[in-house]
Specification:
The protein is 46% helix and 16% strand. It is an alpha/beta fold. It has two domains: 3-122 and 285-311, 3-Layer(aba) Sandwich (Rossmann fold); 131-272, Rossmann fold (3-Layer(aba) Sandwich), CATH 3.40.50.10750. The chain has a ten-stranded mixed β-sheet, with helices on both faces. It starts with a helix and ends with a helix.
């Protein structure tokens, strides 16, 4: 059994309530049928908002959230928003404990899913940034954790600050620890390895590494590292600057310096290496939710639900 398939089995042991608001998409309907029949999760296909228990309380809660952020909205406008865009209703169901997580994106842009999540679900105060991670599995690969990796951020923050990069690394580490079940080895990637070049972008990565080490000394993190140095033990041995590194040649969590590199990398490896990619999984929030590619398959949706379910365990 491959790793991502094993996530479906793990989800079955304690299936969670995952709401899917895109009930008009045939792929999502079929995915829900399969998930329900196989017991992977308890899917909630959000067809009619009138069936939501405590809908009025949900509207009141949303209005209260908007007021806290100085963006007041009337109840009538909130109701109209929910009916016009069920992503918000799904996110509020998660916030209020009506569901354990939500999955969307088959017929919405990542920015739409992220906006709904941020509007309704609190950002983790320790992390302070939402990011989009991918669970990557490459068949017959000797790298990572038996060919399995976490890539981040590949979907949300275009030009992360050092503080944001640190938060992205910490949330990806927690995700990897829960999903992979092994010690995460976190590589902060760039085009340089430990001072072989000097630019403001590299300083950004170096500061992020120092921040994580200072606040989370138990995390095995190193950087900046070139990707071959991060993955390949032979390449790592050549670099004197990382002698004794706990990460060099062993990385299973790859943190990219910006959204360009992260998004390009996951799509390249997905196409050229025929890797399985689940995500982007939205990390850094108090409750789990996941995005889907608009070109997603039924299996992609099933896997996203399974991973989202396991994230709540």
């Amino acid at each position: 059994m491959d790793f991502i398939a094993s996530i479906r089995e793990r989800s079955k042991k304690d299936p969670k309530r995952i709401v899917l608001p895109e009930s008009e998409d045939k792929r999502i309907v079929e995915a829900c049928d399969y998930i329900s029949k196989k017991g992977i999760a308890k899917p909630i296909l959000l067809k009619d908002l009138k069936n939501i228990d405590d809908f009025d309380k949900m509207v009141e809660c949303f209005c209260g959230i908007r007021h806290e952020h100085h963006r007041d909205i009337t109840k009538d406008k909130a109701i109209k928003l929910f009916y016009n865009n069920k992503l918000y209703a799904a996110a509020m169901m998660v916030r209020m404990g009506m569901a354990d997580g939500f999955v969307a994106g088959a017929s919405h842009k990542t920015s739409d899913v992220a906006r709904a999540a941020l509007s309704c679900i609190n950002v983790d105060k320790r992390i302070k940034v939402m990011s989009g991670a991918f669970l990557i599995e490459i068949a017959n690969s000797k790298y990572g954790h038996k060919g399995v990796f976490v890539f981040s951020d590949c979907g949300i923050v275009p030009f992360p600050t050092s503080e944001q990069l640190a938060g992205i690394a910490v949330s990806a580490t927690g995700f990897a620890e829960k999903l992979l079940g092994v010690k995460p080895k976190v590589a902060m990637l760039s085009y340089s390895t430990k001072g072989s070049a000097s630019t403001p972008n590299l300083e950004n990565v170096r500061k992020a590494v120092d921040m994580v080490k200072g606040s989370y000394p138990k995390i095995d993190i190193d950087g900046e590292l070139q990707v071959d140095t991060a993955l390949d033990p032979d390449a790592a041995k050549i670099k004197d600057s990382i002698s004794g590194s706990k990460v060099g040649g062993k990385a299973n969590v790859l943190i990219f310096p910006n959204l360009d590199s992260g998004n390009i990398a996951y799509k390249l490896i997905q196409r050229l290496a025929k890797a399985r990619a689940v995500g982007p999984l939205l990390l850094g929030l108090e409750k789990p939710c996941s995005d889907l590619s608009r070109a997603c398959s039924i299996d992609d949706a099933i896997d996203a639900v399974a991973v989202t379910s396991v994230m709540t365990h």
